[in-house]
Amino acid sequence: MNLPEHKPSPGTDAWLAQINEEIIDPERPIIDPHHHLWKKHFATKYLLADFWKDTTSGHNIVKSVYVECRSFYRRDGPEHLMPLGETETVAGLARESLEAAIGSDTGLTHIAGIVAHADLTLAREPEKLEELLQGHQQAGAGLIKGIRHSGARDSRPENLIIPGRAPAYLYGREDFRAGLRTLAKHGFTYDTWHFHHQNEDFLELAQAVPEVTMILDHFGTPLGVGIYRGNQDTIYQQWKQDIAQIAKCPNVYAKLGGLAMPDNGFGWDKRDLPPDSDELVKRQQKYYMHTIECFGPQRCMFESNFPVDRLSLPYHVVWNGFKKLVSDFSEEDKHAMFYGNAEKVYRLT
What is the rounded distance in angstroms from the CA atom of residue 163 to the CA atom of residue 155? Predict the structure, then answer.
């Protein structure tokens, strides 16, 4: 009797291991400015050892920036201070990563910065927001570089794997904008994540609070599932216009990555075989090149968005794809996008 062939499940190590590419430009130093760690999301764990397994897969990932994902929160105490648990845990992992990197000859990545979470609408109670921001600074021991309070919200969240938690029109709230101005006083950056239909709201926000350095995560997340499936061309045309307008705000930088999330609708997370870097370039090049053209290489930085994008493709494939996308750029521009801009924006040492 012939037993049915067992196929590895998408997103698993066995599934990802089916694609093995020669590493392009392996010596190039890279800062990965956007990754997460967690004990259990999407029914998986992704901790420091798992991150190192990816970052040592061939590319020279020297440093990284951890971006909040509501992991490791405190389980008791004042609600507005619960995000401090994430900073406390990740700061400890960052110390561990630095010690390991110093003592290693295998090129281990160390976490050089943290983008924490704060509810910026706490500006309506300024003492609470100050308490939280100062708590992050103390717990982070110099690693806190910015805050992310995502604006992502969709009218049909049931269609999305990551639906977002923001209230309606968060970016337009005066208490939220007051919170952003508080970040400027502390010298923090502001990372944001939202969906494509919120890009115009974000444009208004960036114009209204020009004193804050803002980082647009994941291209403003063009969606391609649920009610958006089959409308990608129309969405792309509006997205192009929105990105061009946002790029006119000199306080905004763009992260290039996070476009392989299942909600983007490329379908890679449902296939028997992950894409290789050539397919990444073929299907996503227009998003990357338009954004670079609008912002310029000096205001763009490549990001992995792992392990979320790990649901769709391997880590080494992501960076190979990025290197292919800009293979004909100058060395100065390449260094800026792979390393220099992240180092400058997040003030990494």
Answer: 9
Query: What is the Cα–Cα distance from 344 to 76, expressed in whole angstroms?
Result: 36
Residue 16 · residue 314 · CB < 8 Å: yes
118 in Cβ contact with 147 (< 8 Å)? yes
Question: pTM of this prediction?
Answer: 0.96
Residues 6+ apart with CB under 8 A from 261: 161, 162, 218, 221, 305, 308, 309, 311, 312
For 138-182, the DSSP string reads HHHTT-EEEEE------S-GGG-SS---PPTTGGG-HHHHHHHHH
Task: Write out pLDDT tens, residues 12-53.
Answer: 999 999 999 999 999 999 999 999 999 988 889 999 999 999
pLDDT digits 0-9 by tens, 206-248: 999 999 999 999 999 999 999 999 999 999 999 999 999 999 9
Measured between alpha carbons, how far is 174 from 49 in angstroms, rounded to an integer?
41
First to last CA, the chain: 61
Inter-residue contact 85 to 74 (CB < 8 Å): yes
Residue 7 CB coordination number (10 Å): 11
The three-state secondary structure class of 311 is helix
Distances, alpha carbon 91 to alpha carbons 247, 264, 338, in Å: 33, 31, 24
CA 293 to chain centre: 20
The stretches of the chain forming alpha helices (DSSP H) are: 13-16, 48-55, 84-102, 126-140, 174-186, 199-208, 232-246, 277-295, 315-325, 331-335, 341-345
